Amino acid sequence: MIQDLLKQKEALEAQIAALKKEHREDAIAKCLDIINDHDLTAEHLFGKKMKAVKPAGIAKYTDPTTGKTWTGRGRQPNWFKAAKPEQMNGNASY
Question: Looking at residue 65, what DSSP letter applies?
């Protein structure tokens, strides 16, 4: 009995997935028609232009007590300012 129900469930899930795919394709086609008919751009649809995401810099310095890092760009963190010059090796933690 449970096996029969599980088979029915699998069959229904397959039907649902097929219908979703079919409806999705229709919806995309309709959207593309509207976009083309009205000469819409991504800015029209989504507002402001999307900015490129800048990757985070690679950490060059690590605070040995807290594990916090600094890339060497931007304001120097207080822990970096307090370090002794002989502790600074550049591309390594100190």
Answer: T
Write out the two tokens for 30.
Answer: 């309709």
What dihedral angle (degrees, nearest 10) is formed by the CA atoms of 30, 33, 36, 40?
-20
Collapsed DSSP state (helix, strand, coil) of residue 89? coil
pTM above 0.90, yes or no: no
Whether 94 has a pLDDT exceeding 50, the answer reads: no
Structure tokens at 29: 């086609």
Please state, rounded to an integer, the average pLDDT across all residues of the chain: 82
Beta strands in 1-94 (DSSP E): 61-62, 69-70
Q: In whole angstroms, what is the distance from residue 3 CA to residue 17 CA? A: 21
